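Purpose: get a first structural picture of the assembly so the mutagenesis plan has something to point at.
Setup: two entries, given in the order below. No constraints added.
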Amino acid sequence: MKRAASILPLDADMAALIPVPPGVPDPAAHPVLFALRDVDLCYGPVRALHGVDLSVHAGERVALVGTNGSGKSTLLRVLHGLLAPTAGTVSCLPRNRQALVFQRPHMLRTSAQNNVALGLWLRGLGWRQARQSAVEALARVGMAELGGRNAKALSGGQQQRVALAQAWALDADALLLDEPTANLDPHAKREVEALMQAFAQPRSGRTMTMVFSSHNLGQVKRLASRVIYLERGRILADLPVHAFFNGPLPEEAGLFVKGEKI
Amino acid sequence: MHTTSYRLVGRTPLRWGGTSEDGMNTLAESAVTALRLITSLDPVLLDIVRLSLAVSACACLLACGGGLVLGAWLGVARFPGRGVVLTLLNTMLALPSVVVGLLVYLLLSRSGPLGFLGWLFSFQAMVVAQAILVLPVVTALTRQVVEDADRSHGEQLRSLGAGTFMRGLLLIWDERFALLTILIAAFGRAVSEVGAVMVVGGNIEGYTRVMTTAIALETSKGDLPLAVALGIVLLAVVLLLNTLIALVRRWRERRDAGLSAWLRMPDPAA
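Result (structure tokens, whole complex):
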């Protein structure tokens, strides 16, 4: 029998029933932002996600790891609501604001400032006010002087920083990042990582949540509090970062950590 | 059997259809007279060129108003029967201009549904005919550009909260240089069209005579210099449009590569 696919707001009762993943010290202090229950997602005959159960609590820094085609990007898109599951349920905390940063962010043919302002304008802010907020967000990522430059002409690292400024400007509770440093040189990688660290810090008294996918295990060690290993659309390991790199793992995940599975 | 006929070339009767040498002379004389007409800014020639450009510009403006929006929407929207709509749209790209002319003629004729407008054999009728001819070109090419852009980065706009129609509009704006090329190509199609304007305009001298219909008429009359002069102007217009397309493309590439931004940067030594 086909299961119903839906995206529901998560109420307090339902959140209380969701098992707390290891690594979250005080679940009562950290509400569940996202909860996926038995989620399947198919692209035609290809099953990209298979029976995914996952809860992400506020304040967590979750790294999604796995080989190419394991379902990391698809899972991020499901969390953001860009893809609806074929089966299962996706719940998110009401009024949860989230932003997704893509692996290769596309810049519109206009200034970096306008690119950042666009996100705010699409959320209902006036254009003038959106542009003012964009200046602040660009300053936050160290791009204040380049705000007037054609965003298309910026380097890959600079474009990624503009994308982070766009996410920052949206004042999101949760930041989702799809391999944000995959195409960057080491210097740009360090810069973007530093910004990710900064984003994960509490902001205006609010706990920030970060979910990112990465092939870079060093980066995962540095940034994540929890690691989820995916293979062929299934979650094979879901552990605190220390346990993932030091404890016993399923065979496939172990091979991946040893670098014997790409 | 050898036949000889006489036609007028300018004001000088010339033999046509004789030996090949005569033919070459006729062509050379026509070309020289045509160049003289162009360089002397012949008023008849200028009137025809002016009217022709005005009709095509108005038709393009009209077609672009609807074609860009419709193309953008078709590029991002997904609905049942979309494949059929796209097949029909692509079929209309090959719409014969005389058929469009006939359709507009039937609509605007005295007994037609729009006969009350009294537009038949007028400037407006030619604009409507050319707009109908160019609309599928603008729509189909815009749809293709927007759909490709949507496949590439529409997801990011969706993640920022852009709905379907807003995404289409944003992608149109983002691809504005590619669309400029489409608009120029559409103008080229309109200005070089002959069948539809001939049927609905009637080729009335000083009123609905445009470059293409004038060339057809003057050639049949044997007034080759005017036909050749108009042909040269028409070719020049098409050449100019193609040059514009190439320039826009180059400018866009340079802009995206950052040269424009670099040129705008203040001199650090200053």
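Residues 1-19, 259-270 of chain B have pLDDT under 50 and may be disordered.
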